[in-house]
Structures are given as structure tokens and as C-alpha cells.
Please model this.
Amino acid sequence: MVLPADRFTETFLEMDLLATASSVAVGLCAAENGVTITPPQPLTDPVYVSEQYYGPWTRDQAERFGFVKPMTQADLAANGIVADTTGADHQAPPDGDLTAADWEIVDACGAAPRSARFDDALRHVGPWYAELEAVQAQVLDDAEAKGALRDLEECYEQAGLGVSSDGSPGWPRGANGSVIDQQQIQLALASVECKQKTDFTARVAAVEARLQAPIVVKYADELVQKRAEIDEALMAARALLADA
Model:
């Protein structure tokens, strides 16, 4: 699913690539000053491209994750959602042996241009960003979106699922975003079936796209410029990581 504003911002994997490049640049700078740190590895698993939109909306998501945000098995374990079967020792934090003086060097490296360029690409400021952020809170106030949600909730009631009472729109009663078990998977599959019957996801996405469109048009020059900055930083990030 691609909304109008998505074409001008980073994907999750692009954000991670820029953040990783920033960490690598900091590491190189720190090494030049006698401090060794361990930068993270970039994420490449396509699972991070899978997105929830008012909960799971594909059978694949539901079968693999229930209502939990899609992530790798390692991240599921790190977040305590599934058991860690790797046997790895996660007790010692990376760079836990750095001194206060070492951290001062690391912090100074983080503010240096070599790493700041990647952080700057990740930074979104300006009225266009605030207005686009506000749209997310306005979507379900729209009459068409309200109709889609009403149809979905009616489907839940007819299927004997009920509606979530914890303020998670689009979720059935009992949905849990931090547990993956057979009960949650079956509930998620039933939720997806109702979403497909009512065309809920596409209808609500169409509303959000309609609300975003005038903002994108209004700030087209700024958004194009920002995307160019992101693309330039991504090119530099890939080059840096290839040489690291």
C-alpha cells in the first residue's frame, strides 16, 4: 500500500539504512580517536516492508504474526514476544565497557558532518510534515471512513468476534499486539476475512490518500527537495557501508 506522501519519505528499511550509516560513520570517527564501538548491522529482511494498517490486513500477516507488528524472529525474541532459541547471551550491552571520556568522543563524532548528514536526511521538519501527521488522526473522523469502520464492526459482531474496547480501531475484541499464539492467529485470520468482505483497508486508505493529496500538492516543491536529500543520503550510505 502506497499513500501519496509515502513517495516522499523513507521506507522502514531506508530509515534503518540511514541510521546504520550514521552509526558506522560515528564508529569510524571514534576509531580515529582511539575508541572502538560496535555499529549495528543494517536490516534487510523483507518482513519489515510488511505493514499493518489498522491491524493485520493480509492472511500472511495474520498467519505469521497475529496482531503483532511484523518483524524477524530475532526481534520477536528480543522484544519478549517469543522465546529466544538461539542460546545467545544478550546480557552484556554492546559498548558497555566504554568510559565517560569514550562516550564524549562518541557524542562528538555523532555531531560531526560525516554522520550528521544521515541524521539530517531522517529529520522531517516543516508545516507539511505536521499537516501530514495530523491527517492520521483525522482519517476516522471522515464520513466514508466511519462507514467502512461501521461495516467492519458489524461483520465482527455477526461473526461473534465483538469489537475491541481498548481504543484500537479496526481490531476485534481480545486482539493482543504483544502475543503470538494459535488463538491470536485464528482471531487475526477472522479479522482479515471481515476486512476483505467489507473492503475496509482499501476504503480507509482511499480516505487517507484523499486527505493527504492537497497537502502534497501544496508543498510539492519542498517534498521533492526532501526526497532528493534522502536519495542522496541513501547513495552515500550504501557507498559507506560497502567500504566499511
About this structure: The longest helix spans residues 220-243. The radius of gyration is 21 Å.
